Description:
By secondary structure, this protein is α/β, with parallel strands linked by helices. It has a single domain (7-248), classed as Alpha-Beta Complex (Spore Coat Polysaccharide Biosynthesis Protein SpsA, Chain A), CATH 3.90.550.10.
Amino acid sequence: xxxQKIITVVLPAYNAARTLEQxxxxxxxxxxxxxxxxDDCSGDETIPIxxxxxxxxxxxHKENRGYGGxxxxxxxxxxELKSDIVVMLHPDYQYTPKLIHSMCFxxxxxxxxxxxxxxxxxKGALQGGMPLYKYxxxxxxxxxxxxxxxxxxxxxxxxxxxFSKRVLENIAYELNSDDFIFDNQMIAQIFNEGYDIAEISCxxxxxxxxxxxxxxxxxxxxxxxxxxxxxxxxxxKKIKSSFYLKGKxxxxxxxxxxxxxxx
Length: 263
């Protein structure tokens, strides 16, 4: 805990057997109260390794629900555990868990309600081996997104994020896509509710075992990102409203025992 706030780290996992132990070993348990691993129907030894590590909260999707669907299960379980701060950390060891302290102190002291670990602040992305085409695409997409959303984030595509309980309870993340675009829809919801997002520089590692999407999926994702940004722009201009940006997040949307997974 920090300031009596319950801190939970969620690990959205898919075929993470080769990197899970290394990731878990660096989680700072001097402040972290719970770890939740959601396995999205992996084909490797992710679940046995999670059990060997002693992870208390393990959820197994009986069918692959996608990256967004995985996160929904993560956040639902974290709220069920009465978490005050929730850190989403990829178990592929691309992002260092050593930044959890810094991210959580900003939230625990009510400086911000959302904190992202940014690969683009500083030179972490290129030094860590991010492919040049991904770096360029990240910068171009981020430029267009900042213009349409009227913000100044260094990147919208990091997989290292920390949220206060207040944010997760006040955005309708269950209405978002189950695919990779979930992350950007969530950002749109956060800004739509009036929250600011802090960023801290995050060193990044790119290696064979780290999860990544191929060029085709990246291209489709890029188009989806532009669509979400345009939807947000039209929504704020009151030209066309997007359903996932409407209203507050209510308890009836919360499904901690949703069909499709076993615990």
